[in-house]
Amino acid sequence: MTVAGKETPRERYRAQLRAEIKERAWEQIATTGATGLSLNAIAKQMGMSGPALYRYFASRDELITELIRDAYRSLADTIRTAAASGADLAVLGRALRAWALDDPQRYFLIYGTPVPGYHAPDDITAIASEIMQALLDAAQPTGKTVVTVEDGHPDTRLEAHLAQHRQWAAGHPAPPAALRRALLFWTRLHGILSLELAGHFTGMGLDPAELYDNELRHLSQ
User: Fold this and answer.
1) Per residue, what are the HEC states of the chain?
2) How far apart are CA 119 and CA 190, in angstroms?
3) What is the per-residue pLDDT for 16?
4) 3-state DSSP assignment of residue 142
5) Which keywords label this protein (predicted)?
6) Which site among 9, 88, 143, 200 is 20 to 30 Å from 189 CA-CA?
7) What averages of pLDDT result for each successive group of 10 residues across the chain (221 residues)?
């Protein structure tokens, strides 16, 4: 048995190899996308045989799961650190964009086109839920500004819908107005980020940061 905090040389070597395999996987994803990820190609790059590499990751899906888990954990930690300082939605939104711009491939792995045939395990869903929980906390009414909307307004109709369909909030007690703010924050900002990172604003003669900040201002009201 390994004493806590004291890895054996074999364990350290295994951890180093797994880390290098993941680095090679990210390089491959940047070139071919997640659907083109090949463990045999990574093994060849590292001077290993395919069977040798499979001792560290038993399948392509296991490797993808590890990469997705790392990505979600990185974003969850980023959002949680910002939230711990009392950040509002605007600050969390800027933290999200900075994280995405730092490594677009990492962003696209978890928010881009799903990998055909791949299904993430439950623990990854739980990590993703941590991010939404932080957003729901930040979306709560502060008492500084009270925004009311009349019956029949699109926001009112959406709030009524979310009050009955709140499974995605994972038990968070946020009122319907906070559910709406958090959900619109998530969908609108991801829409802009996805377009920006995919290069769809190139040639339009505008600054995506200004568009993003404009959305943040509206969502933070």
Assistant:
1) CCCCCCCCHHHHHHHHHHHHHHHHHHHHHHHHCHHHCCHHHHHHHCCCCHHHHCCCCCCHHHHHHHHHHHHHHHHHHHHHHHHHCCCCHHHHHHHHHHHHHHCHHHHHHHHCCCCCCCCCCHHHHHHHHHHHHHHHHHCCCCCCCCCCCCCCCHHHHHHHHHHHCCHHHCCCCCCHHHHHHHHHHHHHHHHHHHHHHCCCCCCCCCCHHHHHHHHHHHHHC
2) 21
3) 93
4) coil
5) DNA-binding, Transcription, Transcription regulation
6) 143
7) 67 92 94 89 92 92 94 95 88 95 94 86 90 93 54 76 91 92 94 95 94 91 72
How far is the C-alpha of 220 from the C-alpha of 141, rounded, in Å? 11
